[in-house]
Amino acid sequence: MAQALYRTWRPALWDEVVGQDHIVQTLKNAIATNRVGHAYLFAGPKGTGKTTSARLLAKGVNCLEATLENRPCNHCANCLAVNEGRFLDLIEIDAASNTSVDDVRDLRDKINFAPSQGRFKVYIIDEVHMLSTSAFNALLKTLEEPPAHVIFILCTTEIHKIPSTVLSRCQRHEFRRIPVPVIVAKLKELCKQEKIKIDEDALTLIARQATGALRDAISLVDQLSSISKKITLEIAQDVLGTATNQSVIELVEASLEGSSGKGLEIIHQALDSGADPRQYARQVVDYLRDLLVIKMEAGKQLELTPETRASMENHAARFSINRLVSMISAFTNAATDLKANWHPGLGLEIAYAEALAPEAAPQVVVTAQIERDAPKPATAKPSPKPAEPAPKQPEPVRPPAVTGPLTLDWVQEHWEALKREVKANNTVTSALLNSSRLVEVENNTVVINFSSELLRGKMAEEQNTRMVTTAMSKYFGQEVRLICTTGEHAAALRSSSKSGLKQVEETVTKLGGIIREIPTEYKEKDE
């Protein structure tokens, strides 16, 4: 059975470890000066070389090479035994499977036995954060004062879960994510040695997908090499479930144009072609992040073709920094929100709806207005007062009172201000409202239209409808009803010759629309 590439290409010498020079140099110096510590903690993301470095340290301290600077030599009996997995004094423990205090006590009882083959017994405890609290407590004393022939190396991807009492007893080394160019260079060397034909664009895509983990990048190359004799960018995109860059560019352009229908169509086309929703969201985030870097005048660090750079600089110039940050946050949520799994495109659609939302007014303006309207302090010397309660939150701003029923022109004039009131209470409802279009107002009934049945159905849910109707009723000083329509429903409603609320309700019901009442228990009365 063929061995996986990431195991074949596991570094056997310090010089083969990539992207962690700050750690490699420290450990090499410790071996060369014969000042190796008794306990180490290797922390960092998966696939960045923690376990590999731990094994190299174990080889180095037990190497038979006479010159300390050349350890591990990788050709003595002990080094070969470690490479082949038969070195009895290297004990690797998976903490995820040995989490109990009894497991640690068993380990503690065995460490007093002298090494069988080498100078040191090296215990590598992988995923050490999985140990229970009692197991950590049992390990503490041994970790602080182990026998002279024992070295502990603890490895973890979640250092925040390690007790401070353990951290203080170890030499701590932080492994970093490996940069994309470094991963690409290593993959080129691997592909040349393994005679794998692959396009450079595909290597770059793989390196980006690996998110700093060289092991993951090598595994992806291994997977792709079994599919085709030559790995092209298109094959890599198809297997990895990534959308084409052009689709992402078109989506960003649609958001700049403020086109809700076009943007949703682009998203649906990408999903229908087989793109993974979360992966698509990550690609959008990557593109927006690059725009943000360009916007902040740091674009020289980006590796882009002249054509791509020109296009991205054009997009960046049309965005504000605040809007880019808001969109990155929205699509990041789409990439990580497990609640949206029941519908593949829901997270992307909500994120795009939020991307179309107008930017909120700067907070300083609101503060200045409040200070200007605040009553002036009395000139007389105030007498001592007890501590005052927290100030009451300001009521929503209302337009001048309307005599008679609301009209379309009146609501349209105050529509943006109303949407800001909704956004202050709930950003998701605000995003849905921003993806709608105001089409009709009759007898205090407001009709909005959506380009997607999914978005209409989401807004028609009671909590979203109640939030909007409550905000409108408070804002306009009158009870307001809300009708959510989609497609041609709005046009049919406008062309109807009937008048009056009853006729409106009949038309909406016939066309499949939904009318939501404000439940009595949720109606808010003005004080």
Derived from helix and strand composition plus strand pairing, the structural class reads alpha/beta
What is the domain total for the residues?
4
Strand count, sense and barrel status of the largest sheet are:
5 strands, parallel
How many DSSP helices? 25
Instruction: Indicate the overall shape.
Output: elongated
The third-level CATH topology of the largest domain is: Rossmann fold
**Percent in strands:** 5-15%
CATH architecture of the largest domain: 3-Layer(aba) Sandwich
- Name of the CATH superfamily of the largest domain: P-loop containing nucleotide triphosphate hydrolases
Which short descriptors sum up this protein?
4 domains, Rossmann fold, 10% strand, disordered C terminus, Helicase, Ruva Protein, domain 3, four-stranded mixed β-sheet, 25 helices, 527 residues, five-stranded parallel β-sheet, Zinc Finger, Delta Prime, domain 3, alpha/beta
